[in-house]
């Protein structure tokens, strides 16, 4: 089936996965509101895709400015009352080495958690009521997490922790929405390592120029992720390695099954 939403707010649209998926949506007739911190990149996106098969709008915003998020959500929905999909995709990744605690930068750790997790909670709280008000029209919140939410690696443990926290919240949030038969679908996209600027030297100099070659090519990721988002069963969209050896089709499904059993046990005890 085709992607069922007609207008998407794409946060983190100025590079990497966000840019690529937003472009793919426009190619398939889905209107996009591209959001990011860098106005020059937003202008570039609008220039490149503004004459495509769907409308393009842009909004410069820094999601780490938490107090400004409610006003941003109101502004977006005032201008775009037909917005039916909010795609939370922004993120950053940094190295962290606990063998040298004197070099651990707690401010960097806090910024990573703020960007990857805390801001998502503020954005969810701000945007969810607007999506709920559109009932019975189907709407969605889409979250980009990571295969590292399931299987951590040692060079970026704080990034892994932030994605694991988000993954757990999404699992619980989805079931809460289902319990009230909500019109808001909760979708999670699990990328593996993808060749984007996330790994560039300006962000992670530890890679010594090799970061951009890590993972699967961005165009291959985009095709597989888009196919998953356009499928009938699109609540969870694991891509490539996340399915093959990071546990999604094995112990992660078993773990989610255990979660459902615990929910049933708790219902019976109340």
UniProtKB/TrEMBL annotation:
Q: Which Gene3D superfamilies match?
A: NAD(P)-binding Rossmann-like Domain
Keyword NADP carried by entry:
yes
A GO term for molecular function: oxidoreductase activity
Keywords of this entry = NADP, Oxidoreductase
What the entry lists under Pfam families is as follows: adh_short (PF00106)
Domain of life, source organism: Eukaryota
Similarity field? Belongs to the short-chain dehydrogenases/reductases (SDR) family.
Please give the PANTHER family that the UniProt record associates with this protein: 5-KETO-D-GLUCONATE 5-REDUCTASE (PTHR43669), SHORT-CHAIN DEHYDROGENASE_OXIDOREDUCTASE (PTHR43669:SF11)
**Record-given protein name:** NAD(P)-binding protein
Q: Which organism is it from?
A: Hortaea werneckii (Black yeast)
């Amino acid at each position: 089936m085709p992607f069922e939403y007609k207008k998407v707010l794409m946060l983190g649209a100025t590079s990497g996965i966000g840019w690529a998926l937003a472009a793919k949506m426009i190619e398939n007739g889905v209107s996009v509101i591209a959001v990011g911190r860098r106005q020059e990149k937003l202008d570039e996106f609008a220039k490149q895709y503004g004459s495509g098969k769907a409308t393009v709008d842009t909004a410069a915003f820094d999601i780490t400015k938490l107090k400004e998020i409610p006003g941003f959500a109101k502004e977006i929905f005032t201008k775009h009352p037909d917005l039916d999909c909010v795609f939370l995709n922004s993120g950053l990744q940094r190295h962290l080495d606990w063998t040298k605690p004197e070099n651990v930068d707690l401010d960097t750790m806090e910024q990573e958690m703020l960007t990857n997790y805390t801001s998502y909670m503020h954005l969810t709280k701000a945007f969810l009521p607007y999506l709920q008000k559109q009932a019975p029209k189907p709407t969605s919140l889409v979250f980009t997490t990571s295969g590292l939410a399931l299987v951590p690696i040692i060079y970026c443990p704080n990034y892994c922790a932030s994605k694991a926290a988000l993954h757990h919240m999404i699992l619980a949030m989805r079931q809460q929405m289902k319990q009230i038969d909500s019109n808001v679908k909760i979708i999670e996209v699990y990328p593996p390592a993808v060749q984007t600027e996330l790994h560039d030297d300006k962000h992670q100099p530890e890679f010594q120029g090799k970061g951009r070659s890590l993972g699967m090519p961005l165009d291959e990721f985009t095709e597989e992720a888009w196919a998953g988002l356009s499928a009938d069963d699109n609540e969870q969209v694991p891509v490539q390695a996340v399915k093959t050896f990071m546990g999604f089709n094995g112990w992660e499904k078993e773990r989610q099954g255990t979660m459902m059993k615990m929910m049933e046990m708790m219902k019976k005890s109340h």
